[in-house]
Specification:
There is one protein chain. The chain is mainly α and 199 residues long. It has nine helices and three strands. A three-stranded antiparallel beta sheet has the order 2-1-3. A hairpin with a 5-residue loop joins strand 1 and strand 2. Helix 1 runs antiparallel to helix 4, helix 1 packs across helix 5 and helix 5 runs antiparallel to helix 6. The longest helix has 24 residues. 34% of the residues are buried. About 14% of the residues have low confidence.
Length: 199
């Protein structure tokens, strides 16, 4: 489905912006493995009790820049802000790395399969689409994204969101039904389910 691919492409573009401070549909955990390598994921590994959920949004509801991902912030972080040639704020390196790790994590599907629940699947799809739109709006306000870029992406997300409904789910078959079943789990993201069940 061409519109489905458009929303997933748009979603992939929005994930990095989400790392700048917007809350995700699910918690994101950070842990260090036995080799000292830092990992991010939507589920902590069972053996890592020290995995910590990351706070991705500041208390006042605005994007926290690198404060959300690295714990750094305040006036000194703002004073060091760099800008892209198009005038948008540069995403700090640690936040960009976090965004890439988050994108990889969201593209994976939870191994625990849940029964098809059309109401839950549609709620999850719509919620995640709304979150992507909110992320884009916050990042336009905070200077990390140009309004024109948001205006080009947002209609694709809204259009794709409108194509998913309980009645569509109930009549679905093949990969589309599998996609809805995948989205029945609140541990899965639309990017991971779409990657596994193209339709």
């Amino acid at each position: 489905m061409q519109n489905r691919n458009a929303v997933v492409a748009a979603a992939m573009g929005m994930v990095l912006w989400a790392a700048c401070g917007a809350a995700q549909a699910q918690p994101v955990y950070k842990w260090v493995d036995e080799n000292g390598k830092t990992h991010y994921g939507s589920q902590p590994p069972p053996a890592k009790a020290d995995a910590e959920p990351l706070k991705l949004q500041s208390n006042n509801g605005t994007s926290g820049g690198s404060a959300g991902a690295s714990g750094k912030g305040g006036a000194s972080a703002r004073a060091k802000q760099e800008y892209n040639p198009d005038g948008t704020k540069k995403i700090p390196k640690d936040v960009a790395e976090f965004g890439e790790a988050l994108k990889d994590s969201l593209a994976k599907v939870d191994g625990k399969q849940v029964p098809l629940n059309c109401a839950s699947a549609v709620d999850n799809i719509h919620y995640q689409a709304d979150q992507m739109l909110e992320v884009g709006q916050k990042n336009v306000r905070d200077g990390y994204m140009k309004q024109a870029d948001f205006d080009k992406t947002a209609p694709k997300i809204r259009e794709a969101k409108g194509k998913y409904s309980v009645s569509d789910c109930q009549g679905a078959s093949g990969n589309k039904k599998s996609f809805y079943q995948c989205m029945s789990s609140s541990n899965n993201h639309v990017m991971g389910c779409d990657k596994q069940f193209k339709h």
